[in-house]
Structures are given as structure tokens and as C-alpha cells.
Amino acid sequence: MSASPRPSDAGGRLIRVIGAELGRLPNRLRIEGHTDARPYRADRGYGNWELSADRANSARRLLVDGGVPPALIAEIRGMADRHPRVPGDPFAPQNRRIAITVMLDAPKAAAGSAEAPAAPDAAPADGEAPAGDAGDGEATAPDAGTGGETPAGTGGGGPR
Questions:
Q1: What is the pLDDT of residues 85-106, one digit of tens each?
Q2: What residues contact 45, with CB distance under 8 A and at least 6 apart?
Q3: Which of 11, 13, 26, 150 could disulfide-link to 154, CB 3.0 to 4.6 Å?
Q4: Model pTM score
């Protein structure tokens, strides 16, 4: 089976549930997509950089479907294989994942107006709060193609 930017059905449901909860917060979100170090060769010109960015964007769409206001999506990042979850094994399936970070620099409401997020190029606050605990301060959901075989929060493990 080839790699896919879309999560499994179970992963998609999980991301929508997370979106429903995160949609209640005023905080901006950063969404990152990751791959393992195995080169993606299905199409010339489409590699792990594109795949990881497409994974993050797919998660963004699911979060918005779940209830996150689009204005609160601060960043979408494709990280390719540059930040592995398992540094000692760059080919480990756990490296194929998405990460959702809740930023502590919540938008401020102006008097008499709706809340608006800070400028996209604004530096994040001193700290960031994770959307959930996956061991390194980031919440993850099952990767594309896992078929729901890995527990939520393990970030991958399925076919590339």
C-alpha cells in the first residue's frame, strides 16, 4: 500500500473529536505532518516534504470539520523526516504522524469585536500547551493508512 496524506477512518474520527474539543478554546493551533526517512517515490516531484505537508493540511480540514474555527489555524508545517519521534530508527513507523500544538498566545478580543488571531508571522508565546500528552508535548493521531491498528496518540505504525 502506498503512502497517503489522509488518515485511516479511525484516525479521521479521532481528529474530528479532537477538533470538537479544541474548537472550544480561543487558542491558535499549529499542525505538523511528519514522515519516516523512507523516500516516497510514487510520483516524480512529490516526496516526503509534500506528503508531510499534505498530511498536516488533511488534519487541518478534519479539525475544522470537527469545530475548530479556521481563523485559529496558525500554521501548517510539512516536516518530512527532519524531526523523528524515534531518532535512533529513522524508518520506524512511529515517525509517520501528525502533531497538533495548542499555542498559549491566545488571541485577544477587542472591545465590541469578535476575537481575532494574532498575525501569522507573530512569534509564539514563551510556552506552548500540548493538545494532549504523547510523551513529547505534542498530541498525535494515527497516521494515514494505519487502519486503526495503533492506539490513539502513538502516531502511526501502518503502511507507508
A1: 999 999 999 999 999 999 997 5
A2: none
A3: 150
A4: 0.67
